[in-house]
């Protein structure tokens, strides 16, 4: 056990046998970056570290973290789910037309919320089937579903924006406990449940395994298709949950409600350590990534950077983060599409 | 002793190549059966069949007297057959414990919920069987290669708990990457296993076979040539048996001796080192010389060729080609240095499967026939390609056939043709060029290679068997564990026997 | 080889050729169908305005095809198009009429840089271009302060594009010219040869000495260049450059590529197919509006069609493990 042979084999990721401290350092990277950012912003602005500011960061990070966590299930497989914005749009319209609203007489209450989530489940299942059974790359399947989701939302849209009157939904945003809205607590709950699923259930561990080396799992005769399908369903369901929350924040149903949510979610996952290559990271990491991006955004606002500069910077940040995290995986003959 | 496993008249072919030919085998309870044979003797096919990765074309497999069809790895496991692979079967980002039980039901993961404490304990029990100090919660990717081998062993041994009869454990070259201490541990465990399992053990290291086995079975060309108790056979006899004798030994052709450009060899390699695969290798190759490399899997022969072509990741040392530095950073540089490489994995690295013959042939050097360095001249390159295809005797209706319609031998000729299209080629590297080829195609290929050597091309090839090396090469170099152990200059009349070569290989 | 096998292989060849013609068939059917309930579209004037409107999407589809032939994808094209329009206005005071060529060269350089980062650092193209999309869109918004800026009247290039040669709009001439040049390049240059090799089997191409990094740089440079042209064309239609001008075009351009029969798995397809796919997409856009389908509902149609097209064209055997 003393000597560490590092041997590379074609097509299999063998890492070096690192001394423990270096690996822990590597894992703590995002946390260290987070702390650094807080320090830097505090030094520059002098007012970054405050209860009020932290609360607003948490509020802002709640939805992105939920979305990032949902996306993680698919990213861990080594696949991708781009349909988020479409699912959110369709869910938002469904929700706003089923619960008490200003357009029609429906009042399904909690049932309406459940049905809205089922919309996400449906999209996720659709993605799963096309990808797993139809053997179509997830990039394309979910790109198509993104479109379809937006279209469904457009079809559902009545002639004017439906305002939501349902207490259960609006309460998510308006009810505050200890100065934080229910959305924040919901985010914590989602993160916690996702973490537990990924760590303590076979589905979760198999998702990691498939991302680690799908060929081996297939050769072992394990039901890979089933686990992949489930991952897509979970991703769709959580995206739908995000749609519900966003509708609560906005107070009405809207097909544009999901605009601009996909890229921050992907960035959050990657920056936090849930690599696109699969098999690494998890719920906590992705949530941390969302927090990091919010800290960055918040700090940039305080410095006085306009919204467009923030776009530019987040693009650059994601490039750097991905570049650094996959730097050690480069090989002469490695193919990356 | 009762017979646990029996193979009766098992046949398996891959296209024209016969892997197993009316093969018979018996494995008795509690014995260790050693399996030896050269590359291509059918050993790996046999193991794959038992492990559920291949099925026989005909014949029977009987497990404890009952005929079985082992359809999958999972089924093999449930029947109590486990294999310790050469290529590892562990998922790198999961823990040791998960890997051990990944293909077996286990109380700790019952109902889809993981009780980690119980899982680690169960893994600990398995690991204790082989007395290794690996933590069950360690991630596999954190372990060294040898440690991973040990986890593979524990994973296989865990089969014991699954079946109420003694399991069958197959070892496929387990010692090739272990150091002497680790080998001792492995052997100790195998000794302990014999009371509760039956074992088949493949190795090229004949000393080890003789040490650990009760019985030894020698295979050649898919046939069992010997089946003897270990005390009834010695090392020399094993060597002789392994070499096999149904193919007539080709008389070594007496070509003109290579012009003595030895003082100024075309290819000069000094102190070439590639990580763990080989260290400080020196090699000279003259113009028009054919050098044959021989060695078992992992000896460094294939890696050497790939390194010269620039396909390996961390290399130090010096390569001079016609006195010009040629330590290539990648295949592209190698090609512009005048180096070509025929890969052993034709499907993955040698041919563009969906493309036509001509398209395959012009991939690398098509533009040497172009109107300029950047402009393609379809007519000229097609003419050249067609000419080469007839020179190499490629059997196809036209150059517009798709390459994956051709037989393996013809595909290989086309891939070789791709490299020969160059007018500026200096060095041709061939990695197991005759693998999967029938004798006719093989002869054509070798003839083409010799022709090129006569024209001045330097050639280095990795031979499948020592026979092949003796047949084709001017100089035979034997590698073992990343070092050159023997070098025979056949031009000088020093002709080793196959046994000599084997000795140096092992 | 026995008789059945050769029969099967012949059928395979015919099937492939047939498959390649399906998009063309679809287009013909579309046009024929339209002549029934929207005959106005097929008039000179109707076609002329159709092609003027479709030109930006067409050039984007053509440009996007190249990375897809390599098995990658370029998601930044819409952003590059937007930024190109903005930059032309911004740089006009400095460069005058040369602003356009300068911006186009800049776009190409930018694309090459993208390709280099993607290839050398071995980062997936989709994340690389998604990131650059963000950067470029942000730049466009920043530089223009999110407002639409009028194209200077004396810019002769843009002016010329808005005009036409007889019934044929100049913008389409540009598109066709660029497509023809690229098609010729694909067929007769080392770059084109290498690109198809890379798409057919990247590992083999690598091991055959193909400079895959250079190919990727060129491919993304061309894709960005075409996106730049798309931005110019868009600006010439409205007379304004707008940072949000590209809007829906990203997804539509991918749909166009896919509907033309180019496989996402790489190596199959070409610029002719791209044009066909682009025209189908544009035609559908117009038709659905005429029939009364809301533009936003078009999304469903496009999404479904794209999915069907991809499922039919993806070469699963080549991909192996599908992620």
Mean pLDDT of chain C: 82
Low-confidence stretches of chain A: 1-19
Oligomer: heterotrimer
The helicity of chain A comes to 55-70%
Residue share in helix of chain C: over 70%
The assigned structural class of chain C equals mainly alpha
What is the helix tally of chain C?
14
Order of helices and strands of chain C: HHHHHEHEEHHHHEHHHH
Kindly identify the CATH topology of chain A. Answer: ABC transporter involved in vitamin B12 uptake, BtuC
- Span from first to last CA of chain C? 35 Å
Structural class of chain A: mainly alpha
Q: Can you walk me through this structure?
A:
- The complex is a heterotrimer of chains A (337), B (506) and C (323).
- By secondary structure, chain A is mainly alpha-helical.
- Chain A is 69% helix and 1% strand.
- Chain A has one domain (52-329): ABC transporter involved in vitamin B12 uptake, BtuC (Orthogonal Bundle).
- Chain A contains 12 helices and 2 strands, in the order ααααααββαααααα.
- Chain A has a two-stranded antiparallel ribbon with strand order 1-2.
- Residues 1-19 of chain A have low confidence and may be disordered.
- With 506 residues, chain B is α/β, with parallel strands linked by helices.
- Chain B folds into 3 domains: 1-80 and 170-246, P-loop containing nucleotide triphosphate hydrolases (Rossmann fold, 3-Layer(aba) Sandwich); 91-162, no CATH class; 267-505, Rossmann fold (3-Layer(aba) Sandwich), CATH 3.40.50.
- Chain B is built from 17 helices and 20 strands.
- Chain B has helices at residues 43-50, 73-79, 96-100, 116-129, 145-157, 180-193, 206-212, 235-243, 301-308, 331-336, 346-350, 357-361, 378-391, 408-420, 439-454, 466-472, 498-505, and strands at residues 3-14, 17-28, 32-37, 58-63, 66-67, 81-84, 168-172, 198-202, 215-220, 223-229, 267-274, 278-285, 290-294, 315-321, 324-325, 339-342, 427-431, 458-462, 475-480, 483-489.
- In chain B, strands 6-7-8-3-9-10 form a 6-stranded mixed β-sheet, with helices on both faces. A 6-stranded mixed β-sheet of chain B has the order 16-17-18-13-19-20, sandwiched between helices. A 4-stranded antiparallel β-sheet of chain B has the order 2-1-4-5, with no helix packed on it.
- In chain B, α4 packs across α5 (145-157) and α8 (235-243) crosses α17 (498-505).
- Chain B is globular and about 70 Å long.
- Chain B starts with a strand and ends with a helix.
- The relative contact order of chain B is 0.10.
- With 323 residues, chain C is an all-alpha fold.
- Chain C has a single domain (28-314), classed as ABC transporter involved in vitamin B12 uptake, BtuC, CATH 1.10.3470.
- In chain C, the strands form 2 sheets. Chain C has a two-stranded antiparallel sheet.
- In chain C, β2 and β3 form a beta hairpin.
- Chain C is globular and about 55 Å long.
- The model of chain C is unreliable at 1-12 (pLDDT under 50).
- Classes of the chains: A mainly alpha (337), B alpha/beta (506), C mainly alpha (323).
- Chains A and C meet through α5, α8, α10 and α12 of A and α4, α5, α9, α11 and α13 of C.
